[in-house]
Amino acid sequence: MTDAAGSTQGPPGIGPDEEARELVEELVSIPSPSGAEDECAAALAAYLEERGREVYRDDVGNVRAPADDAVLFTSHVDTVPGDIPVRVEETESENETEDGSLLWGRGSVDAKGPLAALAVAAVRTGVSFVGVVGEEVDSRGARHLVEDREVPDAVVNGEPSGWDGITLGYRGILSGTYVATSESGHTSRPENNAIQDAISWWSAVEQRFAAETDSYEPVFERVTPKPVAIDGGTSDDGLAVEATMEVQLRVPPRYTTDEVRELADAELEAGTVHWHDAIEPTVQSPRTEVARAFRVAIREQDGDPRLLRKTGTADMNLYAGAWDCPMVTYGPGDSSLDHAPDERLDLAELDRAVAVLESVGEALQ
Q1: What are the C-alpha distances in Å from 162 to residues 6, 23, 356?
Q2: Residue 244, domain extent
Q3: Residue 113 CA neighbour count, 13 Å, CB half
Q4: Of 109, 183, 235, 298, which alpha carbon lies 20 to 30 A from 338's?
């Protein structure tokens, strides 16, 4: 497998899939940052209902379209924040039968391109479909789904892999909040204040995991610590110095989140850490019936299948932890554009991905 994110070459020429293109442009045109998915979810539900599917919104807002529940196609409706003007840009194409169109807009890659491709393929093949909410924040949609649904026989989770890529592995994530308080005093004093304690702990954590990492190891195999927010200063009453730091550690398959937490806690000399989210890493076998179906379908479209491992975390981690069934993550788009200010989707990739997903849906039933 490779850590590569996007497709290494464009798909061979096929005609545009107008239905899929119309759906993805509509979905991208409706802002849906986490917590504000309702309008976009309603548009997705309307698309499914207009094509004869039973559709309902569940208790957390997921769009559910049950059918052949043995196979589940699913992706997320929400995006990260960011206003990217939605437009379709015509470009030069290497293939005469393609129109060389790029769809710009927040979510075009992560993950409304995969969401639209899976929804269209689910309608055409009759498999079960769910558009989940909250993936970018707390995965509340996926968490509810695994508690509320029977275990499927196979899962295809939608995230950008490139039309010829199959994602089989994700690192896990451990998130926490560090809090420290110290007495206020003159800055000439040599003793650490709470801000210094926070910095010292995090520096020790970074050094600990750097020492355990071979410099030649791929990023997928490493623990990567990352502070994501920090706040500190003198308290309102002037009697203390306070510091708060939000942290995340990405967890490779050789560790559990409990093991990473214990190593981070061992470096703690002042302050406390509240660990509030832990999602385990996952690596799926390339020899399952789902992975085989994708390899066959990609080759049918004259592609060379790529097996990927991603350094981030996705809803597939939660599905793998709860459901004992084969699964992969798949979808059109270059994942290096996830969350980026220039996020855009090659619509020729969308066309090819829908064709691949149709073949997979038919093969797995």
Answers
A1: 5, 19, 11
A2: 172-279
A3: 33
A4: 298
Residues 19-31: pLDDT tens digits?
999 999 999 999 9
- Note if 19 is an active site residue: no
Asked whether residue 3 is assigned to any structural domain, the reply reads: no
DSSP 8-state secondary structure symbol assigned to residue 336: G
Catalytic residue, candidates 135, 136, 280, 315: 135
| d(C-alpha 280, C-alpha 258), whole Å | 9
Residues 6+ apart with CB under 8 A from 184: 234, 235, 238, 239, 240, 241
pLDDT at 67: 94
Both tokens of residue 341? 């200010």
pTM, two decimals, is: 0.90
Tokens of 296: 């066959």
The verdict on 332 and 359 lying in the same domain is yes
Tokens of 215: 């410099």
* Amino acid in the structure at residue 316: M
Q: Give residue 188's pLDDT.
A: 63
Pairing state between β 165-170 and 306-310 = parallel
Of the chain, the end-to-end C-alpha distance in Å amounts to 27
> Among 279, 306, 328, which residue terminates a domain?
279
Looking up tokens 């043995």 gives: 70
* CA atoms within 13 Å, Cβ hemisphere of 213: 20
Q: Is 78 a catalytic residue?
A: yes
**Catalytic: which of 17, 37, 78, 197?**
78
